[in-house]
Design goal:
The protein has 460 residues and is α/β, with parallel strands linked by helices. The protein has helices at 2-7, 37-48, 55-62, 64-76, 136-149, 169-186, 203-211, 224-230, 239-244, 247-252, 271-281, 303-325, 339-343, 392-400, 415-418, 423-430, 438-458; strands at 9-10, 13-18, 21-26, 32-35, 80-81, 104-108, 155-161, 189-196, 215-219, 257-263, 286-290, 358-361, 366-368, 380-383, 388-389. The chain has 17 helices and 15 strands. Strand 10, helix 11 and strand 11 (286-290) form a beta-alpha-beta unit. Helix 5 (136-149) packs parallel to helix 6 (169-186). The longest helix is centred in the last third of the chain and has 23 residues, at 303-325. It is globular and about 75 Å long. The protein starts with a helix and ends with a helix.
Length: 460
């Protein structure tokens, strides 16, 4: 008994009771285990490091043989250790880009949009009131920049963004053609995606996407009522009808498409229903994102809002678990939780690759940390036309924004699945990319907890 108490240690972990068992996650390896009452009791006793904190009672209830056998199993799985180790995560487990290798860019083809979304962070597509379209010379320079800065990395990613990028469809065709030419010279392979409101899709555009294997992310917030109240067209028409009319065509042409759902205060009570609706439309990948804002009626901005959102997320997870347990077919890729990171033990050191492996280029060629910070001169780091690029901020991000070095993140159990929050959201709330809003933390942890519950049930 004393040997268990005094000479064993529990790895850094997060554990919680779920139904009739306990889900345990190793914070650093992201390994997940489902434990029984006895195993969880041993862990609690070892962590408390005293026989007066549960271990003595466990011996009385289960007996020394069972306790010792379970203890050996916990040691074998790495849940318990004989020597207390300094928390450390293997470099091979970290999903991070190197500062010198930029492999992904967003190209903002348009500073205009045909919609008037109520939560739009660039005010209806217009960055600082402008409505310009990118020219071919800038588009080519953006591709040149990506090739030059990619080093020995061969796989490169370009996302067409806006405003509404399809308002500049001719440039998309020209950039794709130019990229194909340059890829042969420099032994690079380009993957293309587009984030679009989908209202301008037509047969010509869909055929082009099919020919060049361009993946599509459609901004759609749920059923007709939810989508149209958040995302009205400027002319007052139904954006929902304009988007959904082309889904069958995308399926026929075998084009990969996903839903990007923004949750506002107007739709936060219908998240679970809208999720189910999007599945019924054929979406196989669904990404949910709150319209966070420090103030404003449309935004998710306080604890009460987050509690409503969390409840809706729980409904999605509970329904998924019911389907999994009953053996019914269910595509877990639709779930808006970080399951991929858990399944693949893919820990993160940063919230994203912004400013490191990924950048955004605006219509004039200016380079920013990400698309959400375009127009903010504090985060402008160069220009592709002028051939300027300052790696100073990128180097700072690599070191100072690593979750292991951040005061408010380094001891958080969720840090390797979160990465410390979106820089843009942090800045909007606190004027500091390092300081995460509490409502963001609460929602993120809840989402991770649900992901662990789904994963544990899928593995049983």
């Amino acid at each position: 008994m004393n040997a268990i108490s005094n000479h064993l240690y529990v790895v850094e972990h997060y554990a919680f009771k779920y139904q009739d068992g306990y889900i345990f996650m190793d914070v650093n390896t992201l390994d997940v285990y489902v434990l029984d009452e006895m195993e969880y009791g041993i862990i609690k006793g070892v962590k408390a490091r005293s026989v007066d904190n549960g271990l003595s009672q466990l011996f009385e209830v289960y007996g020394a043989d069972k306790i010792n056998r379970k203890t050996k199993e916990l040691l074998k799985h790495g849940i318990l250790e004989n020597i207390k180790k300094t928390k450390c995560i293997s470099e091979s487990n970290i999903d991070k880009e190197k500062v010198k290798s930029i492999t992904s860019i967003d190209i903002l083809l348009s500073e205009d949009c045909n919609m008037a979304c109520k939560y739009c962070f660039v005010k209806n597509g217009r960055y600082h009131g402008k409505s310009a379209l990118m020219g071919l010379d800038v588009g080519k320079k953006a591709i040149d920049f990506l090739i030059q800065r990619s080093g020995n990395r061969n796989d490169l990613h370009v996302c067409f963004f806006g405003g509404e990028p399809l308002m500049n469809f001719k440039l998309i065709k020209d950039i794709v053609a130019y990229s194909k030419e340059e890829s042969k010279k420099f032994n690079k392979f380009f993957r293309f995606t587009i984030t679009t409101n989908g209202t301008l899709l037509n047969d010509e555009i869909v055929d082009f996407f099919h020919k060049h294997r361009i993946k599509v992310t459609l901004s759609i917030d749920g059923d007709a009522a939810s989508n149209n109240i958040n995302r009205p067209l400027k002319n007052g028409g139904s954006s929902y009808a304009a988007i959904t009319r082309m889904l069958e065509k995308l399926d026929q042409r075998d084009i990969s498409y996903a839903a990007r759902v923004t949750i506002s205060s107007l739709t936060m009570d219908r998240i679970a229903d809208n999720y189910e609706h999007l599945i019924s439309l054929g979406f196989k990948r669904i990404h949910l994102e709150n319209a966070y804002g420090p103030s404003g009626e449309i935004f998710i901005s306080n604890k009460s809002d987050i509690e409503k959102v969390k409840k809706q997320y729980s409904l999605i997870a509970d329904k998924a678990i019911d389907k999994i347990r009953s053996g019914r077919h269910f595509n877990i890729e639709t779930l808006p939780f970080p399951l991929g990171k858990i399944v693949n033990n893919r820990a993160v050191s940063h919230s994203c690759a912004a400013g490191r492996g990924y950048m955004a280029v605006d219509v004039n060629g200016s380079i920013y940390l990400c698309h959400r910070l375009v127009g903010n001169e504090e985060f402008r780091i160069g220009n592709v036309v002028q051939d300027t690029f300052d790696t100073g901020l990128s180097a700072i991000l690599e070191k100072d924004m690593n979750v292991e070095n951040r005061k408010n993140c380094k001891n958080c159990w969720a840090r390797h699945l979160c990465g410390g929050g979106c820089y843009a959201i942090n800045y909007e709330h606190n004027k500091d990319i390092d300081l995460v809003p509490q409502i963001y933390c609460q929602q993120k942890k809840h989402s991770i907890r649900l992901a662990l519950a789904v994963y544990a049930n899928a593995g049983q």
